[in-house]
Design brief:
This is N-acetylmuramoyl-L-alanine amidase. The chain is of the alpha/beta class and about 325 residues long. Helices cover about 20% and strands about 25% of the residues. The protein is elongated, with a radius of gyration of 25 Å.
């Protein structure tokens, strides 16, 4: 088969990106992921795959893309292959991949996969591949407003799958009997992480920004990246995901849409729809209730609020005679 020609070429953080999406090019009807990652990306997963010799006029990243196109990569589907020269993008960033061996876990369904093509020699060519991988990972973290603690190894998701718990750094590097990946980067993962962080904290990431690169992030505040619940290319989808106390921010950090935090006061009329009613603020079990009620005093205790079935009962004592029960504030 002839060498592939990319549909689009761009530069991202100094890395040449050749876009050849298998969602558009699939004449052999290879199986493809179908789960959307729109607004769900939580990080970048780094893998290693082995260096291969290729014909003149092409690169290993193109060769791996072509092998996938031909159905020779079994059930592996990644977003990027990167070598010492460039990266080839195989999947849209809104589509999940098959790469983490965690089934429907967050590795496959919520992270962007980069396969870094290297060898055990760790020579100058390997180091250039690794540098391109670091640059690309940093650019993607920045694109989604994520910090360095959202950089993952393949092994991280294997450890999560196997029931291990701990810090991101621990899960990224803890021994897993199934596979240690990225095999050639893991021995110096801390140094690689520092390199990604340095690229993340310096300079712009793209040489040709366009409106198509706009992402709308849903957060409590622009500075509170940890509160982010999604990043969307569509403003309307971001608005739909935005909940009370959150705002939608554009790439510049400007709030373009806000849902005000709900306020709760005594005698506020509420409607419950199959909501659990508890006998106290600490009761573990309750009964489902629907209908119109009123907040007894507007106070929140252990995340719950007291309700009564009549406005005339609000605030009256003794509470046992006038309080119908407790409901979770989140259910109101």
């Amino acid at each position: 088969m002839a060498i592939l020609k990319p549909d689009n070429t761009s530069t991202l953080n100094g890395v040449k990106i050749n876009e050849y999406l298998l969602t558009k090019h699939n004449p052999n009807s290879i199986a493809m992921p179908t789960v959307s990652m729109e607004g769900k990306v939580i990080g970048i997963t780094v893998h290693n795959t082995d260096w291969i010799s290729v014909a003149s006029g092409t690169t290993p990243a193109e060769q791996y893309t072509r092998a996938t196109y031909n159905g020779n990569m079994k059930d592996v589907r990644v977003h990027y292959y990167v070598d010492n020269t460039c990266a080839w993008q195989n999947l849209p960033l809104t589509l999940s991949g098959w790469h983490a061996a965690d089934g429907s876990g967050n590795g496959n369904h919520r992270t962007i996969a980069i396969e870094c093509i290297m060898s055990s020699a760790y020579n100058s060519t390997d180091k250039k591949s690794e540098d391109n991988c670091a640059r690309l990972a940093a650019a993607l973290l920045k694109k989604y407003g994520l910090d360095i603690n959202h950089l993952y190894t393949h092994t991280h998701w294997l450890n999560v799958r196997d029931g291990k718990s701990g810090t991101v750094d621990y899960l990224n590097t803890a021994k897993n009997s199934y596979k240690m990946c990225p095999a050639y980067i893991l021995p110096h993962w801390a140094e690689f992480k520092k390199k990604v962080e340095s690229y993340l904290n310096t300079g712009s990431t793209t040489s040709n920004p366009t409106p198509a690169n706009q992402l709308y992030r849903v957060r409590k505040s622009w500075s509170d990246a940890k509160s982010q619940i999604g990043a969307y290319s569509s403003l309307e989808n971001a608005k739909k995901a935005c909940k009370a106390g959150y705002s939608v921010f554009d790439n510049s950090g400007k709030a373009v849409y806000t849902v005000a935090e709900k306020t709760y006061t005594k005698d506020t009329k509420i409607t419950l729809n199959n909501v659990t009613l508890y006998s106290s603020s600490t009761a573990k079990n309750g009964t489902k209730k629907s209908g119109t009620y009123y907040l007894y005093d507007g106070q929140v205790i252990n995340g719950r609020m007291r309700i009564t079935n009549s406005s005339a009962n609000c605030g009256k004592t003794p509470t046992g005679s006038y309080v119908t029960g407790w409901v979770n504030k989140a259910d109101i």
